[in-house]
Amino acid sequence: MNLDQPKALLKVVAVWVSMILAGCAVGPDFKEPVVETPENYRIEEMPVETVEDLKWWELFDDPVLYTLVTTALENNLDLKIATARIEQARAFVGFNRADLFPRLDVQGGALAGNNIIGNTRSSTTDTAAFIAAPLSWEIDIWGKFRRATESARADLFASEYGLRSVQLSLVADVVSTYYNLLDFHQRLAIAQNTLASRQRSLDIIQQRFDKGIIPEIDLNQAEVQKEIAAAQIPLNQRRIAQTENALSIILGHLPEPIETGTDLVNQRIPPDIPTGLPSTLLERRPDVLQTMYLLNAQTANIGVAEALRFPAITLTGTLGVASTDLSGISSSGGLWGAGVGLLGPIFNFYKNIRRVDIEKALTKQVLFQYENTVLNAFREVEDSLVGIETYKRQIAAVRNQLKAATNANMLSNKRYDQGYTSYLEVLTTEQSLFRVQLQFSQLKQRYLNAYVNLYKALGGGWMTPEEMGEAKSEVKIQAVAHE
């Protein structure tokens, strides 16, 4: 092979280098959207401190709950799906980035026959063989591949924050479902105790009726109240089983009974959660950050669409050997080739322009989605703060109501036993007591879940101690890799 031949390829490469250095990426560069944030939250009961160290395992002080959350973080299938999406997005970055570099293939063939050239019959049997390495390289003058890689990288970041969103929602779902389960257990215990109490009252009233002391209506009313309490038992047993089934699926298990720890009444109210400044919320909410990177990815897609409106220049080259003797290909002469190709649109009924319009419209949609996510983030924090403050006052009032209803029921039974009042008064106080007991249990559950909602709304504390250690190690590895 002539030594001047490879020099021609080097000249082509030199042309490519000069052109790529002069190239630019068309389309808009991404700029983080600026949104208005309030200076303060409407409810400022919570301390305005840093929330960087907010940890769920300290916030919800229950060893059983800790075990349930860690189990969910290890086994939940939605979490595994989100993790797999990160792997897919990471691979897609490399897939797009590969277009920035030349493509080298291998090509070969062997022929034998009497019509190797054209369709003319030869009087002899001819043979031919070749092997070559074709090279093709599309110059990224307009930044089509760079924008595609930028989009894929932003999608990767979005999927990572998507994983954090799933983790955060998962912890909140486990905790809130656990508190619902404790509430149903508490209601079941109230119903069982009430049934036992009303059964004892019914036995006494039955004896009095048999002796002719009281009218039959008192007996009927006592029977009705007993059955009301009895009906609450299967209702709450059903709720318990269904809640256990739901929690089992969250844990990544088949439906099964769920162990519980401290009962609802003795659950410790979480300490005040620091809300931080409203301006820092956008930096903590993984769903906000996820949507921002989705906006980044979509903005880069405009550049890809813009680049498709301009001509594409491709460098091609071939190096190889060929022979007319199958057995002598290794010692045959070399072959080479080099060229430059140009392909660009002239007129296609505005298809490429419409492609850009489509990407711009999609970018507007994602921008509005980002703004809506921000608005919802502040709404969720405000709702959670209002919920904590109002449930706190409501539960205090119901606690006083429960104390009064308990005392009223005791006094009415004494008055009835001593003949000072009718059974209607006992009936009324029993109904009030049962209703308030159930209401208090539900309010305690909602009060605890208001803290769960605030924890989720603030977007903090989704990492376990083990995950925090792994994250720190990963940061150190990345720092060393970039040195």
Mean pLDDT: 85
- Poorly predicted parts: 477-483
Radius of gyration: 37 Å
Q: What fraction of residues sit in β-strands?
A: 5-15%
List the secondary-structure elements in sequence, H or E: HHHHEEEHHHHEEHHH
Work out the oligomeric state of the chains in this entry. single chain
Helix content: 55-70%
Number of helices: 11
Q: Structural class from helices and strands?
A: alpha+beta
The count of DSSP E runs of length 2 or more, i.e. the number of strands, is 5
Outline, from the CA principal axes?
elongated
Please report the distance between the alpha carbons of the first and last residues: 44 Å
| Main sheet specs | 5 strands, antiparallel
Describe this structure in words.
By secondary structure, this protein is α+β, with helices and mostly antiparallel strands. 63% of the residues lie in helices and 9% in strands. It is built from eleven helices and five strands, in the order ααααβββααααββααα. Strands 1, 2, 3, 4 and 5 form a five-stranded antiparallel β-sheet that branches. Helix 4 (77-97) packs antiparallel against helix 5 (144-210) and helix 6 packs parallel to helix 10. The longest helix has 67 residues, at 144-210. The protein is elongated. It starts with a helix and ends with a helix.
Helix and strand topology:
Layout: H1 4-22, H2 56-59, H3 63-75, H4 77-97, E1 103-104, E2 107-113, E3 126-139, H5 144-210, H6 216-250, H7 281-284, H8 286-307, E4 312-323, E5 334-343, H9 351-417, H10 423-458, H11 465-481
Antiparallel strand pairs: 1-3, 2-3, 3-4, 4-5
